[in-house]
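Form 7-S
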Amino acid sequence: MRLRPGLAVGVLGLVFAWGVLRAQRPFKEYPALEYENFAIPPDASQKTEWVRARLRYPDVYGYPDHNRFRMRDGSPFPGYWTMDYPRSDRHLLAGVRRLTRINTRSVEQVVDLDGSDDIYNWPIVYGVEVGHWLLPDEQAAQLREFLLRGGFFMCDDFHGDQEWAVFMQSMRKVFPDRPIEEIDSKDPIFHTLFDLDERFQVPGAQYFESGITYEKGDSGKVPHWRGIRDDKGRIMVAICHNMDLGDAWEWSDDQRYLEKWASLAYRIATNYFVYDLTH
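Output:
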């Protein structure tokens, strides 16, 4: 992997070419599966040109309206959308600040497909554990509108055939007529900031106990870098299947997690973000 020198990311004004921005909702932190009382960086309310949003979605276990589970302390199940949150997000955004010239704050923005205009203020949205999401028709329709307006959706951390099938039940509602393709290594998305011809499976923290990089049996062994394009050929949905970039960002400061995995996860993310800002 080599850095492509001289690339200017001074085109951040393109983020706002969607039309007149409406008032953005303020930063808010939600209960999560893995973390509570995580330190909030001092720039949480800072106005910046860009920030990565995280999608809060309904899941197959009934979150949020028909929750079938409780946490050990009796609190409501916070939803699969919170996996790795917010540690993964804070680590990733710190990396974006170091590796690019993107003017971003150090905290994520949680967004909903709730019929309001808020999601259109956040041009890059991330979905985790989408092998468990369950989008109702109206949310799928809004995600489709968000993408066709120029938005970018990156999803990650789902594995094997069964979780792929669950993912596709909702994605077919979003785009019933657009193919999902394996992204060719020569595609610009792998060469916007770093040249990423040599990619490999990025494992989750389960590697600490299992010593293997894959999940969900044989069908989870091969990583897939997939995408959905708009009418002009621009990738608008980036699908990371059979890998766990979220854990790579989350555990990047743990000596047990190999640098090569964390390094690729950060490079993939920054390439995708810069691609969206420049294409």
